[in-house]
Amino acid sequence: MYKKIFLLSALLLTTVVACKNKPNNAEAQATAETTEQTSATADGENGAQAVIRQVDPNLSGAEALETIKKNYTGKVAFFDFWATWCPPCRAAMRDVDQIKPELQKQGAVFVYITGETSPEDEWKNSLTDIHGDHYRLTDKQWNEINNNLHVPGIPAYFLLDRKGEIAFENLTEGGYPGNEVVKEMITKALNKK
Predict the structure, then answer these.
(1) Is the distance from CB of 134 to CB of 112 less than 8 angstroms?
(2) Which helix (H) or strand (E) holds 81?
(3) How far apart (Å, rounded) are the C-alpha atoms in residues 86 and 16?
(4) Which helix H or strand E contains 42, and what residues bound it?
(5) How far apart are CA 67 and CA 79, in angstroms?
(6) In this structure, are residues 107 and 86 in contact, taking their beta carbons and an 8 Å threshold?
(7) Which pLDDT score, from 0 to 100, does residue 82 have?
(8) What pLDDT sits at residue 99?
(9) In what helix (H) or strand (E) does residue 111 lie, and over which residues does it extend?
(10) What's the pLDDT at 5?
(11) Which residues of the chain have pLDDT under 70?
(12) CA–CA gap between residue 164 and residue 70 (Å, rounded)
């Protein structure tokens, strides 16, 4: 009995530690593109797409996040901070996929933000399964955003309403709050006049 409890505790601790913001020794992003428009798409199921968007890599983290948020003015946007190497992030995405099509039909937008700790090739290859808008920030931007928002680990989320105000967030707690909570918060923001 105690052995099982110890093993479960060790597994839980390993998962939490694995999803802490992981430092990266990767080189800085080589691209100098500053476009905020679609730079590539991957066709998904039922006509949905994964859209890669970019921000100027020379922007600070705060400026990069503000630039991204401005793209969704007038929309309800669910922001997901994640990484390719984070199993709880990927598990949460599979959960969200159960409610995402219905919410997208109602006008919700799903925005995925990662950093350079997600290897670029691995990140791009994963996008066909993750329909929404995708940003891969520099380590400097990623770390500054996570520090400014007090994000202790990923996955972490926030929801912007049509006015660009935060309607829901779990940035300091982290972890996926569950489909029931997410669907309720997005629906409430969609119905808000």
Answers:
(1) yes
(2) strand 76-81
(3) 10
(4) strand 40-43
(5) 14
(6) no
(7) 96
(8) 96
(9) strand 108-114
(10) 42
(11) 1-48
(12) 8
Task: Identify the residue whose tokens are 């993750």.
Answer: 130
Structural domains of the chain in order of their starting residue, each with its CATH number? 54-191 (3.40.30.10)
Please state the pTM of the whole predicted model.
Answer: 0.77
The DSSP bridge pattern shows strands 49-52 and 166-169 to be: unpaired
119 bridge partner residues: none
- CA distances (Å), origin 175, targets 146, 149, 154, 158, 172: 14, 15, 7, 12, 9
Q: Which residue has the tokens 């705060």?
A: 62
Pairing of strands 40-43, 108-114: unpaired
Q: How far does Cα 135 stand from its chain's mean position?
A: 8
Residue in this structure with the two tokens 């926030």, named with its chain if needed: 158
pLDDT per position as a tens digit, 142-180: 999 999 999 999 999 999 999 999 999 999 888 999 999
SS3 17: helix
Euclidean distance between CA atoms 65 and 145, whole angstroms: 7
Write the CA distances from 111 to 1, 23, 43, integer angstroms. Answer: 43, 23, 16
